[in-house]
Amino acid sequence: MDSLVCPVQEEESSPWSPALSFCFWFGFAFLVIKSCICKRRKPHREAKTNMASSTIRAVEEILSYRFKDKSLLEEALTHSSYYNNNNNGESFRSYQRLEFLGDMVLGLALSKYLYLKYPSLDPGHLSPLHDANISNEKLVRVAVRHHLDSYIRHNISDFQSEVKEFARAARAISQEDDKVLYGSIKAPNILADIVESLAGAIYVDLNFNLQKLWVIFENLLEPIVTLEDLQQQPEPVRTFFEQCQKQGRKPDIKRLSSGENNIVGAYVDDVLVALGSSDQMDIARRNAAKLALHELPNFMATNITEH
């Protein structure tokens, strides 16, 4: 019997590099070990599904992937609110477990990609790249761009109106701003969940092959934000502080709430100028500063006599 060897052991006296530690911080060690353990996983039996074959074909075409186990795709597209009116309200298995797995492996696959693409980049620069490519808003845009919302099984009354509102707001943002997402638009979380659950479903269907998963999802996530994209973007937090200080004002950025949706306030002379929000705290800070820069000229003009 072949031995299962996972390349995660280091000499006790050899400290990990900061970039490698970055990957472990995203669960690299756990998932590599899990991948090794699951390498001999038995293939799925042909499972029965209640999803229309036309829906299965359409989503498989979007993903450029044909599922061996169609029930995984059905599960990945089923929200917990869904039920079958013709079957006495019988519940179906929702996407929650696959979303949990997909969140982990998609973050890991992206971390591995960035780690290999930028071998000399430190974690301080890798983290913004990771956040920009896998933020909640980014994943929602992916779902909207590929019309995945049309195939979700749910019973949420205002879901389609939320999707349309998000799509209108997203189109209003310039292509340049679209490449580096600052979380300025309220995104329907279910769409990000679906992208993650599809990642989890494909990962399981591929017998836990991370490399093949990334080949599929790299195309789905295009355009991938690069280091050059980030470097070309003005740094709004630094610019906000510099502009305020040049005019003798006191700038500040404060966290107002944290959790699933972080809210940050940008202040000038202890007066709230703008709010920013995102599922990523760093992006929320950038968004608040960016909005504050738009409000700054008017704020300075109306408060000049009071200063």
From TrEMBL:
Pfam family, one: Ribonuclease_3
InterPro entries: RNase_III_dom (IPR000999), RNase_III_sf (IPR036389)
Source organism of the structure: Quercus rubra (Northern red oak)
Taxonomic superkingdom: Eukaryota
UniProt name for this protein: RNase III domain-containing protein
GO terms, biological process: siRNA processing
Keywords linked to the UniProt accession: Endonuclease, Hydrolase, Magnesium, Membrane, Metal-binding, Nuclease, RNA-binding, Transmembrane, Transmembrane helix
SUPFAM superfamilies: dsRNA-binding domain-like (SSF54768), RNase III domain-like (SSF69065)
